[in-house]
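Illustration: DinB family protein.
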Amino acid sequence: MTDWDPKADLRHYLQTVREALLWKLDGLSEYDVRRPLTPTGTNLLGLVKHLAGVEAGYFGDIFGRPFAEPMPWMEDGAEPNEDLWATPEESREDIIGLYRRVWAHADATLDALPLDHFGEVPWWPEDRRRVTLHRILVHVIAETNRHAGHADIVREFIDGSAGLRQGVDNLPRVGEEWWAEHHARVEQAAREAGRKPVR
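Result:
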């Protein structure tokens, strides 16, 4: 039997999803990593930029350990959603590098503080602002997974690539013909259900 280490478990899940998110950018052109594929502009590189800001704030300022680099897109007065897309001047390497530096900063906070250490989230409602590192770690894992799910769909729209993470696609071992037939079955089921009266 091994010792139970909840912080190590949570860190493992956070690191796994961080790496999965970056994997979604592999092999794509500069256009495709920035390409908005939803009406609200969701794009792969923007998700990485956003999550760099999320981790810098939650594992930095909240616990009195501010991240040293400026992030003007996260400051008061920034354009709405400025953190969710990359300008032509912001290279893929710059944003990925920033995200990795934020990981290191966040990981240093996790190394330095126990899970029951308290901080305060000023942008949360007053009755929920006082938080533990444990709660913030769970919150950031949930948010990162949510955005990794967005990245899954955006990447599939770009070139059909799908999968959970590098080396583990978590998909049935079937060919393209099966997927086409499956898609047709799902579409047919949706059409049939759509013709039924709403109860």
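Reading the tokens back as a structure: The chain has a mean pLDDT of 92.
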